[in-house]
Design goal:
Distance between the termini: 22 Å
Number of strands: 12
Strand content: 15-25%
Helix content: 10-25%
Strand order of the largest sheet: 3-7-6-11-5-12
Shape: globular
Order of helices and strands: EEEEEHEEEEEEHEHH
Number of helices: 4
Radius of gyration: 16 Å
Length: 187
């Protein structure tokens, strides 16, 4: 897997207008999210439309609060493992909202956001974990300020607002595979 100007060659490119430049050109945090539109429904075009700013909020009654929302993520991993990229990793996607990591606010400034198509309570698929692990491995190589210790859930940086990726996310399995990978890289 390679990156060209922050774009991953193994992801379908679906550009979002909802981004801007990073203030310090720093990528040092990876944030895992989940999303489904409508909630609990998978494989529909609405996530792409939301991140591209063209969601028809009349398509489902639950979309009304999304009217005018400007939001994006760097990546989405669909249930079948497909990767979609909306914003270059070198730019600031608008995924974290009001957030804090350690002593720093505004996590969008220095993070990459990966959305998993899913919910807090429904298990993610083996294809999603495999795709996420491969993407994370490539990001760890491409962005040396990232590390396994700097991978968090949205719930960790916005605990009073967010719960994703939820109790259904297998942190132990995901981080375990990444640790195996990083240990294999050491001489």
């Amino acid at each position: 897997m390679r990156f060209d100007s922050g774009w991953c060659n193994s992801a379908r490119r679906c550009e979002s207008p909802h981004f801007n430049q990073r203030p310090l050109n720093e990528v040092s945090l990876l944030v895992i999210h989940n999303i489904s539109l409508p909630a609990g429904c998978f494989g529909l075009p609405y996530i792409d439309q939301l991140f591209q700013g063209c969601l028809d909020t009349n398509a489902d009654s639950s979309f009304a609060p999304l009217q005018g929302l400007q939001v994006s993520a760097h990546f989405l991993i669909r249930r079948n493992g497909e990767r979609v990229q909306y914003v270059s990793c070198n730019d600031r996607a608008w995924h974290a909202g009001v957030s804090r990591y350690g002593e720093r606010d505004n996590c969008n400034d220095f993070s990459i956001g990966i959305e998993l198509e899913g919910t807090d309570t429904e298990p993610y698929t083996p294809e999603q974990y495999q795709s996420l692990i491969e993407l994370t491995q490539a990001l760890l190589v491409e962005y040396p300020l990232l590390s396994i210790e700097r991978i968090v859930g949205h719930c960790d940086i916005a605990p009073m607002r967010k719960t994703d990726p939820g109790q259904s996310f297998d942190w132990e399995g995901y981080l375990g595979k990444l640790k195996e990978y990083t240990q294999a890289l050491r001489p």
